[in-house]
Amino acid sequence: MRHLCDFLEFIFMLIQLACSVPLSTCRSYHEYQPANFTSAKHRHFYMNGTLIFAGLFPIHYAPQNNSTSNECGGKFNIRGFEEALAMLYALEQINNDLKILPGITIGADIKDTCSSVDFAIRKCLNFSFVKKNMESLMCERTQAKQSLEHDSMTVAIVGLGTSDVAIAVANFAGLFYVPVVSYASTSRLLSNRIRFKYFLRTVSSDTLMARAVIDFLRALKWNFVHVLYSDTDYGRSAIETFEHVLSASVGTNICLAVKRTFTSQQTNSRELESFLSDMRAKQNADAKAVLLFTTIEDTELILKYFDSLGMMDYVFIATDHFTGPIDRFQSSREMLRRIVGVTPHKGSTEEFVKYFERFNQSATGCPWLDEYRKHHHLKNQGQLSAYVPYVIDAVYATAYGLHDLLNCTQSKGCQFSPDEFSNLNL
Question: Which of 206, 302, 355, 407 suits a disulfide with 415, CB 3.0-4.6 Å?
Fold first, then answer.
């Protein structure tokens, strides 16, 4: 038995080292706190509550050098930051609404995924449901030394701006029966209710996006197009869905000229120039529309090559991410003017804009606010991320689900206490 205890402690230590921050590093709060974060190197936003909603948002892009460091070295993602604040806004509204979860305050534990599967999973290891599960495997002497019994329980994960990260996190969180609610993960793969039993989303799947793109091409009578897609779960699922919907569309005569996959981190310049050369070949010269099922980083890379090679007579149709004011993207204005963006319907964000302005003026303790101010001076507050309303919907959907699970009513409150949450059948 002693050997088993030593082994379990060794495993616990390895996970601590992998995250470079002790899994037992938590605080016990007795009142509502605005914000706390661990250090400049492992920054996150923590707001205490009776129960905690975890938040995973792409506040930075993935580093370009395939670094194995635990520190996110990618450039700042303004949209990801706005989406993280949308979660705080929704929680403020919910906590001030006596009709939702009366007597219960929802806190937040928001972390940066760095737009990377690896970073996202490492951050998940620090959520309370993982730490509590690890402690349940420890011996009594270890439990007494590293008890987490006074910490608020993380009951759901909200966020996940890309499908590849969502797939990995949904698989991981599902092991602990923790629901994941995404606002922007559109992959058709995530519609598999058997594989992703605890995954939900407030945005439509790639199937509707594919139909919209096909309708757009048909309306303009563009029946000979190129397709470029990222070599990620998102890109592969998007092109597969597009081809599936296209083959099932009766009376549609759209042909693909050049179809290529690439990633900004792995595809070298020779390969990029090779398939761009194929696009300019005589047999493909009539195809001037380019469908982009690509990440923001990959889109910026391909636009850079089109620009440098003087390929200025193409029109790009970008899905999901590449829309909004042109000053948000690292591409020339001439290339950005050639993009048609296809995104889900954008809801109202007027109240959130007011919250954003207050937050920017008075917030303290937010680890990313200074970085945001350096990149953006609130000139285009009306041009927020198109997914802000979907983040708010995701938080509300999670809160209403918890409200029903705890059998809450405005008159009687919640019939189950937060301490009984782990015993309920999720």
Answer: 407
Determine the average pLDDT of the residues in 120-128.
92
185 CB-contact burial (10 Å; exposed 0-12 / middle 13-18 / buried 19+): buried
Query: Hey, is 12 helix, strand or coil?
Result: helix
CA atoms within 13 Å, Cβ hemisphere of 381? 15
Confidence of residue 281 (pLDDT cuts 50, 70, 90): confident
Q: Of the given ranges (12-26, 57-71, 247-261, 267-281), which has the lowest mean pLDDT?
A: 12-26
Among 8-12, 97-101, 301-305, 379-383, whose mean pLDDT is lowest?
8-12
The DSSP letter of residue 251 is T
Comparing C-alpha atoms, which of 355, 399, 400 is closest to residue 88? 355
CB-based contacts of 366, cutoff 8 Å, min separation 6: 35, 45, 359
Q: Are 26 and 48 in contact (CB under 8 A)?
A: no
SS3 281: coil
| DSSP symbol at 60 | B
Extract the tokens encoding 218: 């048909």
415: its two tokens: 């019939």
Q: Which residues, at least 6 apart from 63, have a Cβ–Cβ distance to it below 8 Å? A: 69, 72, 73, 74, 114
- Neighbouring-strand partners of residue 319: 342
pLDDT band at 104 (very low <50, low <70, confident <90, very high): very high
Q: Look at residues 241, 257, 141, 123 and name the one whose alpha carbon lies nearest to residue 186.
A: 241
- Please tell me the distance from the alpha carbon of residue 240 to that of residue 224, in angstroms, as a whole number: 18
Q: Which two tokens stand for residue 208?
A: 């509707």
CA gap 406, 6 in Å, rounded: 39
CA–CA dist 46, 54 (Å, integer): 9
CB-CB contact of 74 with 112 (8 Å):
no
Residue 409, phi then psi, degrees to nearest 5: -135, 155
Residue pLDDT, tens place only, 168-215: 999 999 999 999 999 999 888 899 999 999 999 999 888 998 999 999
Q: How far is CA 34 from CA 47, 109, 355, in A?
A: 6, 11, 15
Six-digit token string for 36: 């706390």
State the average pLDDT for the chain. Answer: 81
Can you read off the two tokens belonging to residue 136? 């349940």
| C-beta separation of 336 from 329 below 8 A | yes
Identity of residue 20: S
Q: Does residue 16 have a pLDDT over 50? A: no
